[in-house]
C-alpha cells in the first residue's frame, strides 16, 4: 500500500443501489454517525513518527497549530452547507467556481476556477501546516479532501494524484427507496474485484480490507477509528438506514 499524504482524497456518502448523492441541492438523508465520521476524518491530521517524511519538510514555521486539513468543494456543495456551519470549522475551506462574480461577491473565501490551481494551492499550504513535536517524537500531517459534488468527484477520480475514496455506502429503507428521486450521482468505480479492464476511463480501484482501514493511521487516523468504528465494525444501522464505511485506493496506471 502506498502512503499518499499529498494526494487528493474523496469523501462521499452514496446510495448503494444507484450511487445517488444529492436531492434538490441537499443531502438525501441525515445520518448523524456518518456526519460525525465525515467531520472527524476531514478534521484529523495523521500522527506519524518523527522525523517527518521527506516530502513534508517544513521550510517556514507552521501557520496553523494544530495543523489543518484542507477541504475542496464545488460551489453548489458550498451553498448546500447551512450558513451556520460554513466555513467547515477546523479545516481550510477551498471552493471551486468558474464564475468570477462568485469570487468577487465572496472576497473572504478562497476560490479557484480550476481543480489544478486549487490543488496546487492546497499542496503549498500542506508544507506550512505540517507540525513536528520533538517532545512526543511525532509529526502531525494534514491532508487534502475533496468533498463534492459530482463533477469534482469525477474530475478527481480520473486524476493520477487521486488517493483514497472514503465511501459511505448507504442502503435506503424501503419507503425511502420508493420515494427518493436522486438528481446527483457519483461516477461508478471500476474495482479490481468487479472488472479486469477499465471500462470508464477513470482508472482502477482496490477496495481495502477492514483491517487495512481500522489499523492504518495513514488511512483512517486512530483517533477517528476509535470514535467512529464501534467494536471495530464498519457497519452502522441508524434511523432505518444500513450503511457501511468503505475505502478504495486508486491503483497506479
Ligand atoms: N452525499 C454526499 O456525500 C455529497 C457530498 C457533496 C455534495 N453532495 C450533494 O451534491 C449536490 C451538489 O453537488 P453538484 O454536483 O450539484 O455541484 P458541485 O460539484 O458541488 O458544484 C458545481 C459547481 O462547482 C463549480 N465547479 C465544479 N468543478 C469545477 C472545476 N473543475 N473548476 C471550477 N469550478 C468548478 C462550478 O461552479 P460555478 O457554477 O459557480 O462556476 C459548478 O457549477 C448537493 O445536492 C449536495 O448535497 C452530496
From TrEMBL:
<dbReference type="GO" id="GO:0046655">
    <property type="term" value="P:folic acid metabolic process"/>
</dbReference>
<dbReference type="GO" id="GO:0046654">
    <property type="term" value="P:tetrahydrofolate biosynthetic process"/>
</dbReference>
<dbReference type="InterPro" id="IPR001796">
    <property type="entry name" value="DHFR_dom"/>
</dbReference>
<dbReference type="InterPro" id="IPR012259">
    <property type="entry name" value="DHFR"/>
</dbReference>
<keyword id="KW-0521">NADP</keyword>
<dbReference type="GO" id="GO:0046452">
    <property type="term" value="P:dihydrofolate metabolic process"/>
</dbReference>
<dbReference type="GO" id="GO:0006730">
    <property type="term" value="P:one-carbon metabolic process"/>
</dbReference>
<comment type="pathway">
    <text>Cofactor biosynthesis; tetrahydrofolate biosynthesis; 5,6,7,8-tetrahydrofolate from 7,8-dihydrofolate: step 1/1.</text>
</comment>
<protein>
    <recommendedName>
        <fullName>Dihydrofolate reductase</fullName>
        <ecNumber>1.5.1.3</ecNumber>
    </recommendedName>
</protein>
<dbReference type="GO" id="GO:0004146">
    <property type="term" value="F:dihydrofolate reductase activity"/>
</dbReference>
<feature type="domain" description="DHFR">
    <location>
        <begin position="7"/>
        <end position="250"/>
    </location>
</feature>
<comment type="similarity">
    <text>Belongs to the dihydrofolate reductase family.</text>
</comment>
<keyword id="KW-0554">One-carbon metabolism</keyword>
<keyword id="KW-0560">Oxidoreductase</keyword>
<dbReference type="Pfam" id="PF00186">
    <property type="entry name" value="DHFR_1"/>
</dbReference>
<dbReference type="GO" id="GO:0050661">
    <property type="term" value="F:NADP binding"/>
</dbReference>
<dbReference type="InterPro" id="IPR017925">
    <property type="entry name" value="DHFR_CS"/>
</dbReference>
<dbReference type="InterPro" id="IPR024072">
    <property type="entry name" value="DHFR-like_dom_sf"/>
</dbReference>
<dbReference type="GO" id="GO:0005739">
    <property type="term" value="C:mitochondrion"/>
</dbReference>
